[in-house]
Each structure stands twice: as C-alpha cells, then as structure tokens.
Amino acid sequence: MEKNSFSSDPSLAQELGLLLFLNSRFICRRYDVTENRGKPEVLDDLIILQKLSSRFTLESHCNGLLFFVRYGIPEDIFIYNPFRPGVSQTLPQITTMEEEPMRFKQKYALGFSPSTEEYKVVRVSNHPSFRAMIHTLGTTSWRDIVSIPPSPIYGKPVYADGALHWKIDTSYGSNTMEHRIVSFDLGREEFFVTSHPNLGSERNELIDLIEWRGCLAIVDFSFNTHIDIWVMKDNINKKWVREYRMRVKAHDGEADNSEFQVISPWGDGEILLSLREDQFFSYDPKTDQPTYIHVAELRKTISEETYRTRSLLRCLDAGGLSPLTII
After folding, report:
1. Which pTM was predicted?
2. How far is CA 89 from CA 68, 212, 223, in A?
3. Are 260 and 273 in contact (CB under 8 A)?
C-alpha cells in the first residue's frame, strides 16, 4: 500500500474522536464528536487497556498514538494504537539509567518529525544532572543528544508543528517569567525557548499548553470573567494571535478560571471544555454560550485526549506498529 494512502480518503478528513481514560480501571471509551454533536455516541470499549498494570502511565500522545511508561529499573515503554486495538510497539529498554527510578525527575514525549518523516521518543532527566536521550521508532536503541533543556520542565508535553513543548518549572527559583515555554525541534534535535504573548498572570499554573489545529496554543485562565486562547500562527517568526476570548465566569467567587480545561476544537467552530474533570461543555463563540454535554458513565478520575482520524491513519502506515501482547 502506498505510504499515507489512508489519509487521502476525503471522508476521513474531518473525523474527530474523544478518548476518555478511566484511570481506575484503565478502560477507554471512544466517542464520536461529529455525527451526534452535543451528545457523543459511545462507539466501543477499548478493553485491552484494562489488562495494563496500574503502574503504567499515559505520558504522551501524537497523531492519535498513545505513549505509556511503567516506571522502574528498567522502565517498560510502549506505544499503543487505540484505533486498531491490539496494535502496539514496544521500545527497547534503556541500559544506562539512574540508580533509582525518579518518575517526577524524568519526562518522556512522543513526536513526529515532518522533515525526516520519523517518529521519535525523547527522554529528559534532571537528576543528578540534565540529560536528554532520543529513540527513533524503527531503530533498536537509545542515544544521547548534546542539546539539553535550558530550564527544568514540568507537566505533560504538547506536540505541535514538528516540535514538542513543555512549560518551564518555576519551582527551581527562577524569578523571571520572560521565558515560560521550552520546546524541542524533532528534526534538528535541539531544545530552545519559545516566546509567549502577554498573559494575565505570572503564575505558570494558570496557563495550559495545547495543540490547536496543528499549532501550539496557550490557554490563559488568569481571569475570573473569561478564558483566552492564544495560537501561534507564524511558527517561523513566533507570532501569537489571540484566537478566542470565551466569556466564562469563575465558579463560587474564584479569582480565576483554573477549574476549567480547554480540550480541543469541537463540531462546527465550537470549543470543547471540561469543568473539574467530570463535566463537559461545548462553547460556541458565535453565540457566546456554553452547552452542557452529557457523557454516559463518566468517572471523576479521567484524562482526556483527542485525535483526528486522518492523522491517526497516517501514522499507522508510517509507524510500523505490531500486535500487542500483555503478560
């Protein structure tokens, strides 16, 4: 089959899905968000995830592929394809690791390099000193890279426009908020600082990094009257544009809107949000109104991931995934 031929099907171009992970049981439900807008239809249960040990952590995702880690010495790492249950790729173990696994001192991320057409996994450790390693899918080993992050990073990575992005960890004593984002170019294999727009607060916990239609975006929850979404429209010149200002009032007299989470574009120009991780809303910028969305059997302990089927099918052909066996 010709490479990327799946993605040429125009009927798949706008299909969007929402994955809800019930962390207590590692069962995933997949919801369609285009055919039945406002009331997502349960398509299937991806029950293979219930076989995973509770020690597995969903660390990253890219083009619909899910990246799991089980921390220990050695660490077990694999990539799972939820669109084709049972299809995965196990990564080689790292032979030169720190003496003790330190989950909160290590960061993993999965991304795709458009320039080389390769999927790569990045591992960053800041204990006892900064170290960065990379694995290219299809190879048999990890390798050290010279470039290291200019500042400590924290939180989940965001893949957008050929790079991985993290927020800077300000708990290490940095007094300046001039730089708040660390990025990694997957083609050049280099870390760099990404500029940001003027935001409402210097508290990094009041912003989220998300992928927005292929671009890096910042969600600013600093205000109690609205939520701003900034999108980097020009990746070369690092030009930020405030794409949306959602008129959302903070609950119960809160000083900010940090209880909300912006997940993804939704339906016909709408925005999907969650509140306190167990309520979903569709926000329509044209009417400036949110609409409650009922999701059946929703648990509080979930994490939300979104994927475009077109991107997912493209990565199936390029990634070379194989059947998954879980012991």
Report:
1. 0.80
2. 11, 27, 43
3. yes
